[in-house]
Amino acid sequence: MAVMRGSVWNRRTVQRLRQLLISTVGSMRVKLLLCCCIGFTLIVLANRASDFMGWTSHTAVLERSSDSRKGYSIVMNTWKRYDLLKQSISHYSRCPRLDSIHIVWSEPSPPSDSLTKFLDHIVHLNTRDGRQVELKYDINKEDSLNNRFKEIKDLRTDAVFSIDDDVIFPCSSVEFAFDVWQSASDTMVGFVPRMHWVDPKGDENHYIYGGWWSVWWTGTYSMVLSKAAFFHKKYLSLYTNEMPVSIKEFITKNRNCEDIAMSFLVANVTNAPPIWVKGKIFEIGSTGISTLGGHTEKRTNCVDRFVAEFGRMPLVPTSVKAVDSRNIWFW
């Protein structure tokens, strides 16, 4: 009898364990199925979130912006750095919404046949996807930094991306900055911020030019340099026709501060600050005006000079920074 009772108890225990195991496995299957359903739902919601919020995907934006009037034109300043020019043109001609490239040429001799053939070939090679990017040379007889802001009569876009030949930004960053500019097309939108400061000695009519480190330390800026910035083409006309001649002569003579003058011009019209866009910059050149001695002091002199010419300080400080949240995890 004891053996039979033990046998029955063992069978009952095995049955209970088997039922518990079946129940546990079933529960795990249900949980796994539930997790799969939740994951699939999240993926669908993520893909459709832009529709729910009235937004569109980046690809859709590019497709709808294929009209050249909705694109932008590059105005590139260069000076006897043909290798850098070739690298820059080769890179930027790949950007999706680029409509045209205008090379500001202020050298004594016109572009060589070999250079023009090479650049034409590169642009054609990089725009085989149906786009038609124009490449033009704006030839200037006089060597002046004011040439980079001369009015261009045949621009097909409202947006101008002013860029030096020795700096490279990923096309994704340029396209994002263009989107930001479209939301505030009267102001300047750029990658290189700078600041002006009132003289700490107490002279309210004297200002100090603040370089990158002052922006990094305070998070405040009042200018974005035209070495990498978007602005409306109307400012080319205003700079050419309405900028005080004394300022343009000062810039030509000193070979500096045309970018500060453009910041003054835009701020004087808008009474608003520019917009700094976060972007990774690649410096492909080793020389430039900023590497010369006394650069900051000269820029400070320019700020004071322009304040006197404009009759006021139009620059507006801000701490706003535009960041593409699609490319970062924490924001």
Automatic annotation (TrEMBL):
Organism superkingdom: Eukaryota
GO molecular function: glycosyltransferase activity; metal ion binding
GO CC annotation, single: endomembrane system
Cofactor: Mn(2+)
Subcellular location: Endomembrane system
Cited SUPFAM superfamilies: Nucleotide-diphospho-sugar transferases
Protein's membrane topology: Single-pass type II membrane protein
Entry keywords, A to Z: Disulfide bond, Glycoprotein, Manganese, Membrane, Metal-binding, Signal-anchor, Transferase, Transmembrane, Transmembrane helix
Entries under InterPro entries matching the protein: GT64, GT64_dom, Nucleotide-diphossugar_trans
Glycosyl transferase domain mapped to chain residues: 72-324
Membership in a protein family: Belongs to the glycosyltransferase 64 family.
Protein name as catalogued: Exostosin-2
Lineage of source species: Eukaryota, Viridiplantae, Streptophyta, Embryophyta, Tracheophyta
